[in-house]
UniProtKB/TrEMBL annotation:
PROSITE patterns in UniProt: HTH_LYSR
Record flagged with keyword DNA-binding: yes
Keyword annotations of the record: DNA-binding, Transcription, Transcription regulation
Name under which the protein is recorded: HTH-type transcriptional regulator YofA
Length: 297
C-alpha cells in the first residue's frame, strides 16, 4: 500500500477569502453603514448583509456591532480590516501589473519635510512595483516654494500645509491632525520667561498658528531659533533651548507633548495635495497612492 495515501493531513485546508467580499467588508467598515456602503457598491443592503454573514461564519467571528443607525467594528473586525486593505491593495497591484497599460515618463513630487518620513517610503515602494518605468523626482521644501514650482511646471504634485488666511484654498485636504506644544520631557525651557520658541520662517502654517495663539493669550515669548526643517526644530528642543508647535504624531522620546497651563491651545493643521492640470496618467496614479497612504496611516 502507498504509504502517502494512509497519512492524514496535518491540518485542514484553510478557506480562501473572496476579494469581492473583502471589498464589501472594507467599504462597510470605512463608511460605518451598510446603507452607505450599498450605495457606493451599487448593491442592496440586504445583499451586503448576506455577504458579511457568510464571512463571519467562515471566520467564526463577529465582525460588526450593529447599532441603530451605524455599525462599528469589533476587535476581530479591526484586525481583519488591516488584512483586508492589504489584500485588496496587493490584488490591485497584481492585476495592474498584467492588465493596465504601461505608464512611462516622469513625475515631479513636491513634499514638505514633516510629511517625508510618514508616507514617502511606502508610497515610493508601492509605485515602483506597479509602475517601474516611471521616474519619480522628489523635491523637499517649504509649501510656498513648492507651490511656486508647481505653478512654473517644475512639479506635477505637491503636498503642502494649509493656506494662509485670506488665500483661496488649493488642492484636496488629505490629512488633518492636532498641532501641540512640544519640548524635552525633562526640560525647563517651558518654564523660562520670556518663553523661548523655535519656529520656521515666515509663510509656515505652524509658525502662524503658534504666534497667533501666543499673542492672543498674552504670553511673553521670544523666537530663539528659526529653521525651516523639522530636524532643526527638534535639535533646539533636544538641547532644551526652546519649545515649539509640532504635529502630535511626530513627537518621539525624549521629546514630549507639553501640558503647561501657560501654553495656549493650538488647534489642528492640515495637509493638502495640489495637482498641476494636465500632468498626466503617472501623476494621477501617484496621487492615488499618496491619498491611500494617508488614509491608512
Amino acid at each position: 500500500m502507498n504509504q502517502l495515501s494512509t497519512m492524514a493531513p496535518s491540518r485542514a485546508v484553510l478557506p480562501l477569502l473572496d476579494s469581492e467580499v473583502l471589498r464589501t467588508f472594507v467599504t462597510i467598515a470605512e463608511s460605518g453603514s451598510f446603507t452607505r456602503a450599498a450605495q457606493q457598491l451599487f448593491r442592496t443592503p440586504s445583499a451586503l448583509s448576506m455577504q458579511i454573514k457568510r464571512l463571519e461564519e467562515t471566520l467564526g467571528q463577529t465582525l460588526f456591532v450593529r447599532e441603530a443607525r451605524y455599525v462599528r467594528l469589533t476587535a476581530e473586525g479591526e484586525v481583519l480590516l488591516g488584512y483586508g486593505r492589504r489584500l485588496l491593495k496587493l490584488n490591485a497591484e497584481a492585476v495592474t501589473q498584467f492588465l493596465a497599460p504601461t505608464i512611462e515618463g516622469r513625475v515631479g513630487l513636491g513634499i514638505t519635510d514633516d510629511v517625508v518620513g510618514r508616507i514617502l517610503p511606502t508610497v515610493l515602494a508601492q509605485f515602483a512595483r506597479s509602475h517601474p518605468a516611471v521616474q519619480v523626482d522628489v523635491v523637499v521644501g517649504r509649501s510656498k516654494d513648492l507651490l511656486a514650482q508647481l505653478d512654473d511646471g517644475e512639479l506635477d504634485l505637491a503636498l503642502v500645509m494649509s493656506v494662509e488666511p485670506g488665500q483661496a484654498p488649493r488642492g484636496d485636504i488629505v490629512h488633518s491632525e492636532p498641532l501641540v506644544w512640544a519640548g524635552r520631557e525633562d526640560g525647563v525651557a517651558v518654564q523660562r520667561t520670556p518663553l523661548p520658541v523655535t519656529l520656521a520662517q515666515q509663510g509656515c502654517a505652524w509658525r502662524r498658528i503658534a504666534l497667533n495663539a501666543l499673542d492672543h493669550a498674552g504670553v511673553n515669548y521670544r523666537i530663539a531659533y528659526s529653521c525651516d526643517h523639522c530636524a532643526g526644530q527638534e535639535a533646539a528642543m533636544l538641547a532644551d533651548l526652546a519649545v515649539t508647535a509640532f504635529p502630535k504624531s511626530l513627537i518621539r522620546p525624549p521629546l514630549k507633548r507639553l501640558h503647561n497651563e501657560s501654553l495656549p491651545p493650538l488647534g489642528d493643521y492640515q495637509v493638502a495635495l495640489v495637482k498641476r492640470a494636465g500632468s498626466g496618467d503617472a501623476s494621477e496614479v501617484l496621487a492615488e497612492r499618496v491619498v491611500e497612504a494617508f488614509r491608512e496611516g
